Amino acid sequence: MATRKPVSLVKGDQSLVQTWPDEPNRFLEDHVDPFLLFCVKKGTSDVSIQTDRVVYTDIHGTLYPATFRVLDAADMAVFLNKIYGPDALARLASGTDLDVSYEIRPDRYSRVRFRVNITPILAKGRDAAQITMRVLPAEPPKMDDLKIEQAIIDNWAPRQGMVVITGPTGSGKTTLLAAGNRMLLERPIGCGKMLTYESPIEFTYDTIHSPRSLVAQCEIPRHLPDFAAGVRNALRRKPNIILVGEARDRETISAAIEAAQTGHAVYTTTHTTGVAATVRRMVSAFDKHERAERAYALMETLRMIVTQALVPRKNGGRIGVREWMIFPDEVREKLLDMDFDNWSNEIQRMIPSYGQTMSKSAGIVFEQGIIDKRHYLLLTSAGGSGGH
Predict the structure, then answer these.
(1) Final residue of a domain: which of 90, 113, 136?
(2) Is 376 part of a structural domain of the chain?
């Protein structure tokens, strides 16, 4: 098939602005992986593929064209089919966006992974699609890489019970969980059998040396329909550790509580900000008539809540700032002895004794000169976590 010469569309670093040298006149499925590998080799963090536009790569926050030719509907159909499967167009037509992972194995020993979102859009008056592909690191980071506080590390691995990681979308919850998983796997005794249920699977653990551990990862909804089904599935597989990608509804929260009550260590995430707000949100997921019973069941299983926000550093990049609280026996007993409606205020009061407020954590990095005053003030007001 005829190919185009690489074309530089703007002046500057030629390696960044060069379009794909092997670009065909018409994309076929065999072209997709080599093209994506070309984008990754350029140092791309995200690839945006959209109907009636050239493909764009995001390199250090700037968009660069990666194709000379705009993609038409036939090209997009090829990308959708290769990345998602033959029912992609039908799923998009039903008014839903799609979250999946995608993997390329250039050889037996290496892999390139992407987190993919596919969203229906309108282009030139017709239904179309945009594919956003985030390039994922080859292996999970270490807790030290993320500068996780020692108190969080020390309380990360309860024998049983629930650890909840919270924060808004894009706050690094999945990355923190993956680093925690890696820490468990790299212990001399390993971690036994770990089951994860994720949407999509972002980090894999094949490269982590852990002879006394067995990790099995399921993608929702590719392998199982939802997170609640995942937890029910886990209970039939005799795991030591269960990771539930998101506790977003009463069925999943109930299933996670049940798993924690039956002797498992359960890790999950929620889209909340702050320790007290997380407990309040998880309790409020239940109907009023069952709220009290479920609230006390939740409190019996809670071992730690960590809230994370990613904040721009002064010198570029971002830093994780965290609020956390551990729930030892005496804390749980005190809370179980009072009405659950009073938990928020009591938890807020306890955070400085059993963890650290977002305000305190923000103050530490601000005083070190890592973040600027504007972001420090945003964290101290948004956290709602009291003073220093």
Answers:
(1) 136
(2) yes
